[in-house]
UniProtKB/TrEMBL annotation:
<protein>
    <recommendedName>
        <fullName>Phenoloxidase-activating factor 2</fullName>
    </recommendedName>
</protein>
<dbReference type="GO" id="GO:0005615">
    <property type="term" value="C:extracellular space"/>
</dbReference>
<dbReference type="GO" id="GO:0006508">
    <property type="term" value="P:proteolysis"/>
</dbReference>
<keyword id="KW-1015">Disulfide bond</keyword>
<feature type="domain" description="Peptidase S1">
    <location>
        <begin position="56"/>
        <end position="302"/>
    </location>
</feature>
<dbReference type="InterPro" id="IPR001254">
    <property type="entry name" value="Trypsin_dom"/>
</dbReference>
<dbReference type="InterPro" id="IPR043504">
    <property type="entry name" value="Peptidase_S1_PA_chymotrypsin"/>
</dbReference>
<comment type="similarity">
    <text>Belongs to the peptidase S1 family. CLIP subfamily.</text>
</comment>
<dbReference type="InterPro" id="IPR009003">
    <property type="entry name" value="Peptidase_S1_PA"/>
</dbReference>
<dbReference type="InterPro" id="IPR051487">
    <property type="entry name" value="Ser/Thr_Proteases_Immune/Dev"/>
</dbReference>
<feature type="signal peptide">
    <location>
        <begin position="1"/>
        <end position="21"/>
    </location>
</feature>
<dbReference type="Pfam" id="PF00089">
    <property type="entry name" value="Trypsin"/>
</dbReference>
<keyword id="KW-0732">Signal</keyword>
<keyword id="KW-0964">Secreted</keyword>
């Protein structure tokens, strides 16, 4: 037994030395012409905010205001009794971030989360979607339906999603992150226009300018809200461009922005909250400020989940060797 253990140990050490180039005078730390640090690359499915800029299905032509299949893999659709009612974002394999306003009055058992979705009108797609039941819903205790303040909720799933090319997570914003003057995106399956009878089957893609709070409040005071309207501290704004914006049915969807260092990666700035009509010029829409609720998110994930969401700039500890 001792002899066999010694031989096996010698073979293992010899292999490792050979692989690192430390035998026969080779350069240390070299494998197949590359150092180990160069050869280790993060698994893209484990990196938050990693999009698929060209989608994952070839030869699919879609209008510019729609996403391509698999383009934004953290977007999830929410269903109740088989009907779509809103959207959310996957921030961990078993945790969805959404708006409290769209889950009010719904029990945990009646909500189903669908990831990897693109066309809600077609169950058989190029990239198969996956459904998960919700085990627990956590809404912010100080959520105000009237004002939209603290409009945030977490859905803890009964079973986690397995991360893959068309099902990934979105990054939370880094502490103190500001998105002023940025152009960001919203995706979802809400109405294309206010007077449409039905929601969109195909996942929409809407590009919007971020609007600073002072300008937003001034513009909203010019609406039916009146001159005394005060924008709650937990809200941020985007939009105000004619014929561009989210609409009814987009509630809970993520407002996400490209990272400066890598525009193909995104971090979540907001959650679709409320608006005055849809796509009206100089009338921005209002979103929950996700950065303000980072601590709240981490606190409740620590209590209800084994996962911790990644913030922008972080990489997971598990790497794969290419």
């Amino acid at each position: 037994m001792l002899k066999n253990w010694t031989i096996n140990t010698f073979l293992l050490v010899s292999f490792l030395c050979s692989a690192t180039g430390q035998n026969e005078g080779g350069a240390p730390g070299i494998f197949n012409g590359m150092s180990f640090t160069e050869n280790l690359q993060p698994d893209p499915n484990q990196v938050c905010g990693m999009s698929n800029p060209n989608g994952l299905v070839a030869n699919v032509k879609v209008p510019k205001d729609y996403s391509t299949p698999g383009q934004f893999p953290w977007v999830v659709a929410l269903f109740s009794q088989g009907k779509y009612f809103g959207a959310g974002s996957l921030i961990a394999p078993e945790v969805v971030l959404t708006a409290a306003s769209i889950v009010v009055g719904k029990t945990d058992a009646e909500i189903v989360v669908r990831a990897g979705e693109w066309n809600t009108g077609q169950r058989s797609e190029f990239l198969p979607s996956e459904d998960r039941p919700v085990a627990r819903v956590v809404q912010h205790r100080e959520f105000s339906y009237l004002l939209g303040a603290n409009n945030i909720a977490l859905l803890f799933l009964a079973n986690p999603f397995e991360l893959k090319s068309h099902i990934r997570t979105i990054c939370l914003p880094s502490q103190g992150r500001s998105f002023d003057q940025k152009r960001c995106l919203v995706t979802g399956w809400g109405k294309v226009a206010f007077n449409d009878e039905n929601y969109s089957n195909i996942q929409k893609k809407i590009e919007l300018p971020m609007i600073n709070r002072a300008q937003c409040q001034d513009q909203l005071r010019n609406t039916r809200l009146g001159v005394s309207f005060d924008l709650p501290a937990s809200l941020i704004c985007a939009g105000g461009e004619k014929d561009a914006g989210d609409c009814l049915g987009d509630g809970g969807s993520a407002l996400f922005c490209p990272m400066e260092a890598d525009p193909s990666r995104y971090e979540q700035a907001g959650i679709v909250n409320w608006g005055i009509g849809c796509q009206e010029e100089n009338v921005p829409a209002v979103y929950t400020n996700v950065e303000m609720f980072r601590d709240w998110i981490y606190e409740h994930m620590a209590q209800n989940s084994n996962s911790v969401p990644f913030a922008a700039g972080q990489l997971p500890s598990n790497y794969k060797q290419e």
